[in-house]
């Protein structure tokens, strides 16, 4: 921008002092706006921009509110009967300590709902994993269990405060007893276990189930070996409670607690030993990695064996390998493979 010449400054001052023409001067009162223009102008000012643009703060808040309610709708959908796909609230009959860190939660099951735990048990897997050991092909199957099949089931328990769920396996025959008994251990950071331990008779608990853990036909095998530790014995207790003595012999290899801790599982194993007599061989093995001599003694003389393994990952890996991330069986490796067992003779449980 060029600066004005010094000689022209007096002329500029003189022009600035002259009055403006009438049509350029400031009016003494506001100009009148036509009614139609005034209404259009006020309407444009009154219409909030945020209502016209979806991506505004209010629209985002509404969207976030809807998304936040979706999990709540899933977990709290009203449903009274037990259902494997929908949660429902059920009264607690009792919560009894069975050890320093374990309680037995008892929930009574109405007579109209007991058949789904027994004669009408459905071979249902929510993960597309074959619930029957080595069913071929490996596809999702659903339907009534064939005659002679024992269906071992679990239920899901939810903590509504944190919207999380955990699977627990009844240690008894729910259909025959009219109630489910769940042994729940309280561990550090386990919110569902904390919830169960805080419950009392008359309180309610959210359940979803029953869901099939696995289903087998015991007459297909002459020896069924079950290897477990801690609460992992629950599916084997249910299997023994539902099956009836016949030609199949059972062997339970259950680890003793670490460090002389209270052996809470003994009170649940004793009734099964009395029921089965010589057809059930209970052997308490030392904690830690399962030893070859214990497995070899359990399989001695078996012609058509089936080995069921329910162990934590650090103990399952050296014995037979872990489950695949998809919860399928995965390859058979480790000690059981070295002993000559085939994949169709071993079944891993989560």
From TrEMBL:
Region entry Disordered, spans: 23-42
Residue sites binding FAD per the record: 166, 168, 183, 185, 192
MF (Gene Ontology): oxidoreductase activity
Keyword set includes Flavoprotein: yes
UniProt-listed Pfam families: FAD_binding_6
Keywords, ordered alphabetically: FAD, Flavoprotein, Oxidoreductase
Residue intervals of the FAD-binding FR-type domain: 85-217
Cofactors named for this entry: FAD
InterPro entries reported for this sequence: CBR-like, Cbr1-like_FAD-bd_dom, FAD-bd_FR_type, FNR_nucleotide-bd, Riboflavin_synthase-like_b-brl
Gene3D superfamilies: Nucleotide-binding domain of ferredoxin-NADP reductase (FNR) module, Translation factors
Family: Belongs to the flavoprotein pyridine nucleotide cytochrome reductase family.
Annotated PANTHER family: NADH-CYTOCHROME B5 REDUCTASE, NADH-CYTOCHROME B5 REDUCTASE-LIKE
This protein's name: FAD-binding FR-type domain-containing protein
